[in-house]
Amino acid sequence: MTSSPTYPLPPTLHPIPHPLLDLRPDPEIDHHLQHPTPITSPKNIFFFWTTGYENLPPSTKRNIRAWHRRLSPHGWTIHLLNTLPSSPLHISNYIDTSDPDTVPQAFTEGAISGPYAPQHTSDLVRFPLLLRYGGVYADVGMMQIGDLDRLWGETVGDPASRFEVLSYDVGDGVKGRGMTNYFLAAGAGNAFFARCHRLLLQLWAEDGGRVSTEGMHRSPLLKGVPLMGGSFTIEEDGETIGPEEVRVLLTDYIIQGQAISMVMGLVDEEDGWDGPKYVAEHVYLIEFMVGSQLINEFTNWDGRKAFDLMSLSLPKEGEVENEEQGKAREIVEACLQRSFGFKLAHGLILRVMGETLGSLWRKHEGSDNVPGTYAHWLRHATIYWNQDKIPPALIFETPEPLKRGPLLREQ
């Protein structure tokens, strides 16, 4: 690797000893990531990109390399799976893509349609991979900041721990009605994700078999789960898409999140399942705004502002920090000290929020990796530094269930 400038190390972080990092040059890391090794433990980190690692945007490759450099010395293996014919990382080499209990018919036939078909395809492999192998599923847009190996070792990876699932909370606070799907972790055969998987498959099987998620929010099996989103509007082609329609768009787009929320709130006495109780006792959730969206909180979801701040250079020796540099420093230090990760947003969110930091890093190739900038400081930290502590888990209540009755039966 090329040498980096010397960046200030914020309190509550420590440098990782170089023997505990894979610091080989990028081409060697890339070669390693494209040549899979057998799965021999639950310490797996799964990513998915339909056209394969070689076709990832450069900024996203840097995300994946950082995961590998930090975690592979601790026994973790990165698997970036795809749908490329003849690829050893083809998803069918990892899960049975002809089995209707694993993926829906549209997946098997390659018939998933719509503008976000790749995203929906990736949604459908998350549960099967975790159920078969155990480990972590993360979006390629995730930057890992906190000590994942330690958190795993003190929760899911510890047979004495009560925690069986790791993720970020995106629900109604301590009532625990939502979970992000961009970072999910559990051991193989997890009871919670098994039910989420069965429900998601059933949603895809309705109406004789669906080829997209459009309209899935109307399924009677999701009755009682609130729509996602807030009061967003979309200005497009001279027309305004109102908040209710935007909530529908977001909900159908992240229909996997609706399935998760239903299982979190389900009491199914026939199956011996109490979702609210399970969440309170066995799910380790990190608050998602601070935990994985903090840059957006600082910039009020203004992607251009985030991009401009992160593109600034740090003051050189003898220079006085200006106001904008101070804001950028505050963002980086806060992320490094308080966040467990950062999710670079793409997909439908671009229609709702406009440009994001992630989309601008992709558009301006290399802008996230200019030595001496705040973006590079953050990149440097995700490889070379670690947090002294793991993030706290939210303490959950056991509220009234969203539904009483069998998972796959209408109320």
From TrEMBL:
Signal peptide: none annotated. GO terms for molecular function: mannosyltransferase activity. One of its GO terms (biological process) is mannosyl-inositol phosphorylceramide biosynthetic process. One of its GO terms (cellular component) is membrane. It holds the Pfam family Caps_synth. PANTHER family: MANNOSYL PHOSPHORYLINOSITOL CERAMIDE SYNTHASE, MANNOSYL PHOSPHORYLINOSITOL CERAMIDE SYNTHASE SUR1. This is Capsule polysaccharide biosynthesis protein. It comes from Heterodermia speciosa.
